Amino acid sequence: MATVRLENLEKKFGAATVLSDLNLTIREGEFFTFVGPSGCGKSTLLNLIAGLDEASAGKIFFDEQVVNPLPPRERDVAMVFQSYALYPHLSVRENIAFPLRMRKTPASEIAARVQEVAGLLGIEELLGRKPRELSGGQRQRVALGRALVRKPKVFLMDEPLSNLDARLRLEMRTEIKRLHLEFPITTIYVTHDQSEALTLSDRMAVISRGIIAQCGTPQEIYAGPADLFVAQFIGTPPMNILAAELAEGCLAIGSERLPLPERASSGAGMRAAVKAGIRPEDITLEPDRRSGTLVGTLILTEPVGPEVWVKFSWRGNVLCAKAPPDYRNAPGAEVPFRFRAQKFHLFDAESGQRRGGPQS
Amino acid sequence: MSSRYAGHLLVLPALGILGLLALGPILWALWLSFQRRLLIFDISRFVGLENYWIALHDPRFWQSLLNTAYFTAVSVTAEIILGMAIALLIRHSFRGRGWVRAALLVPWAIPTVVSARMWEWMYNADFGFINFLLLRSGLVSSPLNWLGDRTLALHAAILMDVWKTTPFAAFLLSAALMTIPRDLYQAAQVDGAGAWAVFRRLTLPLLRPALLVVLLFRTLDAFRVFDAIYVLTGGGPANTTETLSVYTYKTLFQTLQFGYGSTLAVLTFLCVLLTSLAYLRFLRREIAY
């Protein structure tokens, strides 16, 4: 178990900067996730921590030790790959035993440890098989087993669930969380799937174009996205964003004036262009027109089971709201609705940075 | 007429031509091998297995079989080891890799007869480039008679064959190397494998099928070696470089012993057949990953 600390970490491929000036401390025993769209540099970051790639500048600490010059095998990390990377010519038993064998562990201990890990993951009856005889979920378990068997300082997982179908992904997500509760080894997890990041992490960092856009607990990030990118990246369906103006403590969207809570009004009398974000669950659909409701036009509905996502247009914006599962309406119908105005997130129109603190 | 019969009927001409051009001559050679047939003395009669009996007691046959086996074993081993080394070296990208690859192909692209002539001159005892280098560098004090020395000649032929066909092994193995996913190497590194362990426990086992294919192709080719040796040494000195193919050729077309020559050809064929069967047994045990 170790604390992992990144100090001014930077990675360039030729002229392209992939990661710039990263500073971060991942605490001992923490489940930490890097989440971001593909190509944001998160997998490169994981490779730097593993030692599979060299940093262009900056330092990586495991506890107090700088590990930059160490090859992967001297860093005592274990890694689970998106493709699982199981050795195709070795049986499941030999795959799991591989890291121990490389470290010259006595045969009797290897056998005992493999058995123990296989029991933990429920794959005892697969030990004699070759990887190609396994299903995706089983391969994933073997890959986890190979990483777990050594009890490393740090666990690295590179999109381990991406190759699984939706149902198995949920199952393995639970499994990974259970394993982390049972063995609280420092875990660094990389994913492009924000819902995975939200459900698994103790803390997470949202990465965008090689920099950390925001770092915090899932709750903090969901409740107070630091900028427009995070606001739109985290949450399903994504947050609605409207062009608006701040004026006299009100939010002006076209001719509509919406009252704002205290925190957001920055200096009375000042007008400022902002982007106003509101999550789908903070738009209330009303049964009919009444005083104070706004009216949009229904585009389409997406039933997702426990709720229905209602997409409608309003003053040139496309908005998404959540409705109960029995919501029925035809495209083109009127959609009376209300914003829960105190739930607005305000972002500077130019920089995209958040204005004001997290909402209540 | 059902479509199945029609199908058979349509294949018939092709089968006929194949039979005439491939199977026919093979069976004819087999038939000849049971005959005593000397054109110069106008002798032609059936003798059953007598030719085979003669071959088994013919020291020149055994010598040529031994030469062939030695040539095959040494050259194929060297080609596979060198080919593997080259494949591993050109796996990583570096400046000018394209040129190195193209240069590697040159020996393989030159017709054997041409390269044999070229090497013959390089081996020339008085004017050859190799002796020139050896004398200049002081490695030998007097010129070596590369193609005239009983032990040197066969090794000279082997060296030329290695030069010529190592690229084949290198390219096949390099193609196979490229099919090994990068993730596996990374996983092995993280799991604690050093360079040697990665090679021995990962690269080598995963290359096994490709290695067996190279081995099969090269063994069969080397076992039937003819043009390289025939041009380079003509089988001499004192038959020390005479391989089965060269001996067969000489018997058939220089002394016109059609019966005995065919026997030698059939025996060569049997050797090649047995080797292939042995390899194929190995290959079949290989599993697709």
TrEMBL record, chain A:
Q: Name one Pfam family in it.
A: OB_MalK
Q: Which GO terms describe its molecular function?
A: ABC-type transporter activity; ATP binding; ATP hydrolysis activity
Report the coiled-coil segments: none
Q: Which InterPro entries match?
A: AAA+_ATPase, ABC_transporter-like_ATP-bd, ABC_transporter-like_CS, ABC_transpr_MalK-like, ABC_transpr_MalK/UgpC-like, Mo/tungstate-bd_C_term_dom, NA-bd_OB-fold, OB_MalK-like
Keywords of this protein's UniProt record, alphabetized? ATP-binding, Cell membrane, Membrane, Nucleotide-binding, Translocase, Transport
Q: Which residues form the ABC transporter domain?
A: 4-234
What SUPFAM superfamilies has UniProt attached to this entry? MOP-like, P-loop containing nucleoside triphosphate hydrolases
Q: Name one GO biological process term.
A: carbohydrate transport
Cellular component per GO?
ATP-binding cassette (ABC) transporter complex, substrate-binding subunit-containing
Protein name, please?
ABC transporter ATP-binding protein
Protein source organism = Tectimicrobiota bacterium
The major lineage groups are: Bacteria, Pseudomonadati, Nitrospinota/Tectimicrobiota group, Candidatus Tectimicrobiota
